[in-house]
Design goal:
It comes from Rhodobacter capsulatus (Rhodopseudomonas capsulata). By secondary structure, this protein is an alpha+beta fold. Helices cover 35% and strands 22% of the residues.
Length: 469
């Protein structure tokens, strides 16, 4: 007999972004391709009972963790199913694990096994919520979801709300406040797609890309998801975050935008001679002024920044021109890349090849009073081609850089391992703004940079059949 509570919940159509992940699942139902998993390491004088209470309340609030999907004649649909609300799993691995094993090693293996398990969107629960105690003053909070419901900002919203609920459980203020219902985002997205603004945004994109570079297309279903990724986390100069902040202030930019543009400049260092430029793909949170600012969901968009360079153009001049382009992209950034693909004539089973891609994650870890907390991104879904990921706290502290690629992009990977960090350091140095960008790009590379083993998950796609649109 169907659950009457579930039956009363409305079914909603999937967003364009979600349809892309549904299609991916249908092509690769036996692969854990788009699992999203974070681990928050908490050390200190934690009130364990308060955190358990907070996480249980969080599971009730974060509706996206309880999504259910079905397919039918009208296409795939989604529903918030109270029966899918994840139950908190608590394990004190100091006592549950093998006495001769390390509790944290046991916890890491548990998380790795969970990430490696495929998620069947038609019948499996999407989310897992664990609290693993691995020491007298050390816990691992594990959250696993699927990209069809969550992006990086959505996970950060959940983490911040957990910290607020923890503060409330200990008699403090719960800031930020409650997460809003998932349906509010779906309704807002439907209104936007039916609005004149959507049509205006589409017209801007058509004009913007009319004379730009050809955008490579990936034919879905032909990827090789069994290959091992190339991945490394290069050491950054200790002075780089401070130099980046100074250079950003001088350029009247936020440090995330300066770092994004510098990475884009380096990726486009060998521009085609026809003057069309090169497309560098950038995730865009797409939440400014939206109800999604307080709703965990898959909202992030991916935008192509067309990078060009003029003869003898200084870094300052290039940054000013490119920052203006970046602002224009964001002004029209709510227009979905999936719609942009359809506008370019791409059909079912095709999408743009998002490579190279620069991803900035300027998110503070959750704060638990009396404790230190550190976020680890264990899985963030599959990537294509070549990717640069930069993460730091909102003020730029704790800056880290990851370079990863599939084997087909090995040449770019090797070049990035030796050339990218020296270029960033040169470009943030005193006086660099008036130096020609071409000269900064041509500077010396590092002499040695060993590769590090792949991070979890250790598979990346080799692009299937690539075309141009």
């Amino acid at each position: 007999m169907p659950d009457p509570t579930t039956a009363a919940r409305p079914w909603h159509a999937l967003t364009l972004a979600q349809l892309d992940f549904w299609e991916e699942f249908r092509f690769h139902p036996d692969r854990p391709l788009s699992t999203v998993a974070h681990c928050t390491v908490i050390e200190g004088d934690l009130d364990e009972a308060a955190l358990i209470a907070a996480l249980r309340q969080l599971a009730q609030e974060a509706e996206v963790l309880a999504l259910r999907f079905r397919d039918g004649p009208e296409g795939p649909r989604q529903q918030i199913d109270p029966g899918r609300i994840p139950e908190l799993r608590y394990h004190d691995l100091r006592y549950e694990a093998d006495p001769e094993s390390d509790p944290e090693a046991t916890a890491r293996k548990m998380m790795e096994r969970d990430i490696a398990a495929p998620i069947d969107l038609r019948q499996d629960p999407l989310a897992a919520l664990w609290l693993l105690r691995v020491g007298a003053r050390r816990w691992l909070w594990y959250l696993r979801g699927h990209h069809i419901g969550l992006d990086g900002y959505g996970v950060a919203l959940i983490e911040r709300r957990a910290a607020a609920l923890y503060a409330q459980a200990r008699g403090g203020q719960a800031e930020p406040g409650p997460l809003r219902p998932f349906a509010h985002y779906l309704e807002e997205e439907e209104r936007y797609r039916a609005s004149p603004q959507h049509a205006r945004d589409g017209g801007w994109w058509a004009q913007h890309l009319a004379d730009g570079p050809k955008l490579a297309v990936l034919r879905k279903g032909a990827e090789d998801y069994g290959c091992s990724a190339l991945a490394t986390e290069p050491a950054l100069p200790a002075e780089l975050p401070a130099a980046l902040a100074r250079a950003a202030a001088a350029a009247d930019l936020g440090w995330p935008d300066l770092l994004t543009l510098l990475c884009a400049a380096w990726l486009a260092r060998d521009l085609p001679e026809d003057g069309t430029g090169r497309a560098i793909w950038l995730p865009y949170m797409s939440r400014l002024g939206s109800v999604a600012a307080t709703i965990p969901a898959l909202v992030v968009n991916i935008l192509p920044l067309v990078v060009t360079r003029q003869p003898d153009e200084t870094l300052a001049a290039w940054l000013g021109r490119s920052a203006a382009s970046l602002r224009q992209l964001r002004r029209h950034g709510r227009y979905r890349v999936e719609q942009l693909a359809a506008d370019h004539g791409l059909g079912a089973g095709e999408r743009f090849f998002f490579s190279p891609l620069v991803n900035l994650l300027p998110f503070d870890p959750p704060r638990f009073a009396g404790c230190r907390a550190r976020r680890e991104v264990l899985a963030a879904g599959p990537g294509d081609g070549f990717n640069l990921t930069c993460a730091a706290a909102a003020d730029g502290s704790g800056l880290a850089l990851w370079i990863d690629a599939d084997p087909a992009s090995a040449e770019n990977f090797d070049a990035a391992c030796t050339g990218l960090v020296p270029f960033l350091a040169r470009s943030c140095a005193e006086g660099a703004a008036e130096t020609p960008l071409a000269a900064l790009l041509a500077g010396p590379a590092a002499t040695d940079h060993p590769r590090l083993p792949p991070r979890v998950p250790s598979v990346r796609p080799i692009a299937g059949r690539l075309e141009e649109a």
